[in-house]
Amino acid sequence: MTASTMEKTRTNLPPRKTSSKRHEIVEIYDRLYTHFGPQHWWPAETPFEVMVGAILTQNTSWKNVEKTLSQLKEKDLLHPDALYHIPEKKLSSLIRSSGYFNVKARRIKALMAFIFEGYGGSVDDMLSEKWEALREKLLSVRGIGPETADAILLYAGKAPVFVIDTYTRRLFERHSHIDPADNYQKLQKYLMEGLRGRTDLYNEYHALIVMTGKQFCKKTPDCTDCPLNDLLENKAVSNP
DNA sequence: CACCAGGCAAGTA
DNA sequence: TACTTGCATGGT
User: Fold this and answer.
1) Which residues have a Cβ under 8 Å from the Cβ of A113 and sit 6 or more positions away?
2) Which nucleotides of C are covered by protein (CB under 7 A)?
3) A28 near A232, Cβ under 8 Å?
4) Does A3-38+162-235 match A47-156 in CATH topology?
5) CA atom of A176 to C1′ atom of C11, Å
6) Residue A215 CB in 7 A reach of strand B
7) For A19-67, what is each residue's pLDDT tens digit?
């Protein structure tokens, strides 16, 4: 896998010619990719920014998080040393516009403590650890659950993990035979096996799913008038 | 006005 | 184990 092929990713899993019926996971991916194009995720300049953003965006619109991140950047606080030393109270006031500011300030401080106590404040050192081990450690940090941990691993550390969020559940609940009641790990395993360990696809797929959530699907549990239905139903349409 | 947003932890039965 | 609740701002 070269850098250039990472840029514009199509699945090619399996080749259309030799497979009469492609896996629905791949089918959905290709439809989303064809429609929306590459997403270039995560929207951040540094791995550290990914990590902070991942906490700030918990159950919160990215729009609100952007405001917070740009303000932190403006004050030159968006790096480990600054956020490690800043008082929690002050941090909570700075991240106010992201919502849950008291909770998230505590969570960010917990992550800083983790980075400094475990890796001397070096994000690079943290991310150079084996991702399976790092995942377990991240999950032990207060405020980092499976989605946040996996977002950090995938988008900051380029680890081969699929990020499962509410949009992902909703999409596969409506447009595949996957049991929506399945827990995080089971759905994740199913998707990861379907995509054969392709980190670039995990990256792009999750980004595409969030894009569809933003553009179309806001209603739960069902949305019959959702324009996304036209894109995802009629699975035979593109391949006679 | 209600409802949702790229979750998580803690409490309850 | 499986629900329920608190956390909170900002946009539609």
Assistant:
1) A84
2) 6-11
3) yes
4) no
5) 31
6) no
7) 434 688 999 999 999 999 999 999 999 999 999 999 999 999 999 999 9
The CATH code of domain A3-38+162-235 reads: 1.10.1670.10
Most confidently modeled of A131-135, A168-172, A236-240?
A131-135
Among A30-39, A131-140, A186-195, A229-238, the minimum mean pLDDT is found in A229-238
pLDDT (average), residues A74-88: 98
Give yes or no for CB of A100 within 7 Å of strand C: yes
Please give the radius of gyration of chain A, using alpha carbons only, rounded to the nearest integer: 19
Q: Count how many Cα atoms sit within 13 Å of the Cα of residue A161 in the half-sphere of its side chain.
A: 26
Rounded Cα distance, A122 and A193, in Å:
32
Q: Which of A33, A9, A53 is nearest to A156 (CA)?
A: A53
DSSP alpha helix (H) spans, chain A: 3-7, 24-36, 47-56, 62-74, 80-85, 88-94, 101-119, 123-127, 131-139, 146-151, 166-175, 184-194, 199-215, 228-232
- Domain coordinates of chain A in residue numbers? 3-38+162-235, 47-156
Nucleotide with minimal C1' distance from the CA of A41 is B6
Instruction: Report pLDDT for A238.
Output: 41
Half-sphere exposure of A49 (CA within 13 A, CB side): 17
* Type and span of the H or E element at A156: none
**Protein-to-nucleotide distance from the CA of A62 to the C1' of C12, whole angstroms:** 15
Q: A66 CA to C11 C1', in Å? A: 14
